[in-house]
Amino acid sequence: MIGGGKYDLLLVNGLVMSRSEDQVSPLMHGYVAVKDGVIAAVGPASELGPLEGAAQVIDAAGGLIMPGLVNGHVHCPMTLFRGLADDLPLMTWLTRHIFPAESAHVGEELVYWGTKLACAEMLLSGTTCLADGYFLEKHAARAVLESGLRAVLGQGVIDFPAPGVPDPSRNIDAARDFIQEWQGVSPLLSPSVFCHSPYTCSSETLVKAKALARATGALFQIHVSETEAEVNRIKAEKGLRPVAYLDSLGLLDQSTLAVHCVHLDQAEIDLLAERKTPVCVCVESQMKLASGLAPLEALLKAGLEVALGTDGPASNNDLNMFGEMRSTALLFKVAGLNPTALPASQVLDLAGPRGAAALGFAGRIGSLLPGFRADVIVLDLDRPNLHPLYHPVSHLVYAATGREVKTVMVNGRVLVRDGRFLAFDLEETMNRVREIARRIRAWDEARK
Q1: What's the pTM value of the predicted model, to 2 decimals?
Q2: In a 3-state reduction of DSSP, which class is residue 63?
């Protein structure tokens, strides 16, 4: 109960999605109290003391108060390549379109402004935490820091000339420099190492990159088994399937995030579970690129921490986690011809506490509980697509679109209020992105 103590912020008059014994427990007319960026108290309005005890009060106006969503895998700067090449197989898409575009255009300007655009898109649709991986990541970090989002930021490592690292022999040095520069800069930012994949990084590079991650306490991110072609290639070159190959190098542990994991056999799932290696699946991207269907239910049955991610905006093509949740829930039902597969509450957890745990934030974000960081969003329930309201969790997965998000805070700082974007000058970002896009469009037309 709130007594005479002073709070920084009170969210009042909303339907609060709290938790009790790992179950979502809606509270009508509830409140959330915030102090020093932390949730100090959650409860029904009947327990609420005088509002004078708070420096700021936000009236949710009957809206839904819930934890911000977690996007477990994204390439933020690739907003500049959104829609550049579509309806193509993964390797064709990469080698004939995306890699050439990146080679021609990726620089400090594109990474910075593309990331700011991505941050705005995610905040406006309710995402408060993300895991990114790209090149020239220090410029992405600047953008994310200005946005106020919580993020794991991975410096890209690849055994080819890359933006910011024209000499591949310096790829680990670049990752080390990034971590040293950004570690401790902000409690919201966690620098990490992002190795593109087992087929673009040598075994020596992978081992060195993981050693760097271990030495610095950083998350190690890597694409794994996204396509059958990748699996066949690694088997032919290494004599092992990708997960077993990574394990043979000592890469699998609780601080490695294995992204995609579409083509796994049961032995690989068991191995990931034994090593307690978290996984991130990107359902809409995998659908769009026809990469396949990750064995999500088997991963969950094995007890793995699993996050949902949008992947980059060039292969999704949006960064909307509400859409990702809906696609995930529906796709696995039709794939198994089982309407009970992946119920809404389970899918919501993948974009919430389980996704947070996969990124190393277990017990810190993803739930509205005292002691958790105040990463909170409010949805406007007064929308036709959310009426009538029988089961809030069902609506979040099957009916909400992200456009209902009206208030967003991260670490207690309000970044969106009443639908107004407050984090930075969004018009400036849009204008700068348009300038860069004009150059990319001219380049692309000249290639045809």
Answers
A1: 0.96
A2: coil
